[in-house]
Design a protein that fits this description.
Blueprint lengths: L6 H14 L12 E5 L15 E5 H6 L8 H11 L1 H13 L5
Antiparallel strand pairs: 1-2
Length: about 100
């Protein structure tokens, strides 16, 4: 499913990808990188914050067995171990939003 992205989303996506320089999980670089939301985009308050995104290749984002969307528990553990600052920011925000206790 192809999504229509507004200008603000495209700017956020570019900032995330420029910051990370490639997939933060596997190191792949190239033209087809994805900006993954840590807090889902439907939570408008954090939708376009730079700390709410990570660059992932298609495999690490949605396609591979161990990807952010197919295996979110694995991804949360990976995030806690490898990007602990972003992990704790996301945890604090989820608590604030009443999504976890």
């Amino acid at each position: 499913m192809r999504r229509n992205f507004n200008k603000e989303h495209l700017i956020w996506r570019k900032r995330v990808i420029d910051r990370d320089g490639g997939c933060v999980v596997c190191g792949k670089t190239g033209k087809y990188m994805n900006a993954h939301h840590l807090i889902p985009a439907n939570f408008i308050k954090y939708q376009f914050e730079l700390n709410n995104g990570l660059t992932l290749c298609a495999g690490c984002h949605t396609l591979a067995k161990f990807s952010a969307h197919k295996n979110p528990i694995w991804f949360c553990k990976w995030l806690a171990k490898n990007k602990s600052e972003l992990y704790w920011i996301a945890i604090d925000r989820l608590q604030e939003l009443g999504r976890i206790c």
